[in-house]
Amino acid sequence: MVDVRVRSFESVVFFTGAGMSAESGVPTYRGKGGIWKEYDHESCACQTAFEREPEYVWEFHNYRRELVGKCEPNEGHLAIARAERARPAGIDVVTQNIDGLHQRAGSQRVHELHGSLWKLRCDACGWRDEDHRAPLPEIHCPECGAYKRPGIVWFGDNLDGTTVRTVMERMASCDLLVSIGTSAVVYPAAELPLIARRRGAVLVEVNPEETPLSEIYQVHMRCPATEALAELCEGLEAPG
Ligand code: BV8
Predict the structure, then answer these.
(1) 226 φ, ψ to 5°?
(2) Range(s) of the domain holding residue 227
């Protein structure tokens, strides 16, 4: 069995999806209880819907802010944050999640590929802010009065170029990549671990279920995120 404990590697990327936050009570997108089973993202979570019915899109996103706002980081988030404290320059989190739970657990080096539920912007005048109030009391831009937009990468939106370049660099320079709780069906995020694979890193997939990209991983941990992370981060003590 390959030794995949974080302490045996120099540079580690944790690549996380909704399954990372499932044990915190945040609904996943697909599979049992998935949010896209209940809501059609084309009517409540995309630019076209936002332009057509901004109030309904905000009703959906305020519902998510209230739901996610009540959730706490789980032992898996905390284990990753402890690992970063033990190895300040050696751990990065690349997340598809928008819930902010990695940051609330104490992780500093977090790259949000799909934006954040807590970030806001105005596409009419360029105003930006971060606001954790749930529900958001005001959905109009304080500068120009247009509707604020959640700072989320919706389907059909481009990802932020700077974030993608930084993430590609980290994937190309890590020696361990741990994918946690993603169904690997959303692109371009899903294929980013291939960069680490090409670089010769050890790839670990943490997911109770198989995914379309399972075969690129050398090690599969078919268990929940918290259980796998307790094992992977074993023996890593933060200094002091
Ligand atoms: C783009 C935002 C360039 C946040 C999301 C046609 C037109 C336009 C684009 C496309 C097109 N066809 C294809 C595309 C590309 C498209 C895409 O990939 N579509 C797929 C579905 C085919 N991608 C895009 O549009 C991206 N942009 O390509 O720009 C472009 C631009 C214009 C035109 C063409 C190209 C943007 C993608 C980002 C979309 N944003 N959501 C929100 O609203 O919530 S997608 C959504 O899925 C989330 O972001 C999420 O992060 C992402 C991936 O989901 P997962 O995180 O994997 O979660 P999921 O529920 O699926 O799986 C959970 C897993 O956890 C399961 O496997 C489960 O087994 C496991 N699990 C459960 N419990 C646990 C667990 N694991 C461990 N422990 C547990 N306890």
Answers:
(1) -65, -40
(2) 1-25+73-114+159-240
